[in-house]
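Subject: Sanity check before I submit

Could someone independently write out the structure tokens for this chain? I want to compare against mine line by line before I put it in a report. The sequence has 89 residues.
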Amino acid sequence: MFSLFDQEDWGNAPQGLDSASLWASSLAVPSLADLVRQERWRDFESRDGKLMTLFICSKILGPHAHPEDPLLEPAQRMAEQVMDELHGD
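---
Independent answer below. Compare away.
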């Protein structure tokens, strides 16, 4: 079983921020990133979790992103997917 305990914000951050951060940190290993999304699906399915995923993707895709960064493509795909989901809600 996978557990995530964050004492940095002591529960003050929106739901999904820690999971989205962990997902982004694992993007270099796609199977690990997929595992994070599978294990933390409740966070990613919540509206706050979707917004936090977009927030984290925006950090990767921001104006200082290097065009050859291997994280750009998966972050772009996820941002598009989450925006589609939010428009459907």
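---
OP: Matches mine. For the report I'm noting this point. The helical segments are 17-25, 30-39, 41-45, 47-61, 72-88.
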